[in-house]
Amino acid sequence: MKNYIIKSFLALACLALVSMPLAAQKGKPGGSGSGGGGGCATAGITGLSRTTASPGDGFALSGGLSNCSSSKQRYLVELTFTSACGVETTLVSNVMQFSPFENKLLSMVSAVPAGTCLGAGTVTLKVSDGSSLLSSASAPLLIQ
Predict the structure, then answer these.
(1) Alpha-carbon distance 113 to 58, whole Å?
(2) Residue 126: which of 135, 114, 117, 116 has the closest Cα?
(3) Confidence of residue 16 (pLDDT cuts 50, 70, 90)
(4) Could you tell me which residues are beta bridge partners of residue 26?
(5) CA 122 to chain centre
(6) SS3 call for 42
(7) Please, what is the Cα angle at 46 between 58 and 96, to 5 degrees?
(8) What DSSP line would sit under 115-137, residue for residue?
(9) What is the pLDDT of residue 39?
């Protein structure tokens, strides 16, 4: 039953990513004003649904994002996994729009990449303005 729920969430996440690829989304990351800069964001991870996993297993991340800028912003939000071998894989990538000083709760579902090295891995939530990393937060995920 648990695997069925995880697989359902993964299928839904994949469908959302396939139906709206990053390149086709309206607008680019960065400010809505001229010049684009002025981005200020913070990212935090409040938890992972599991602390150990095997290659191919699904997991969920919960966290929060904040726009600390006084203007509307579009930020590139990425969820990555770095294996014990040092290989970084982007699992989720999405452009999100923020109003001035807006905070958002975040929930992402993904899977440990197949064929990943066993050992201590790291799940990282990154926020950038398209050219510069503004904030990141990490949590450990042991791969057995």
Answers:
(1) 9
(2) 135
(3) very low
(4) none
(5) 13
(6) strand
(7) 80
(8) TPPSEEEEEEEEEESSSSEEEEE
(9) 83
Model confidence at 11, in pLDDT bands (50, 70, 90)? very low
The structure tokens listed for 68 are 């600390």
pTM score: 0.73
pLDDT tens for residues 74-122?
Answer: 999 999 999 999 999 999 999 999 999 999 999 999 999 999 999 999 9
Domain definitions of the chain by residue range: 2-143
Residue 3 binned pLDDT confidence (cut-offs 50, 70, 90): low
- List phi, psi (to 5°) of 16: -65, -40
- 8 Å CB contact between 77 and 87: no
Report the topology of domain 2-143. Immunoglobulin-like (2.60.40)
Q: Tokens 């450990």 appear where?
A: 140
Integer CA distances (angstroms), 31 to 22, 50, 52, 69, 94, in order = 17, 35, 38, 9, 16
Answer yes or no: are the C-beta atoms of 45 and 125 closer than 8 Å.
yes
- The b-or-e profile of 74-104 (16+ CB within 10 A means b, else e) is bbbbbbbbbbeeeeeeebbebbbbbeeeeee
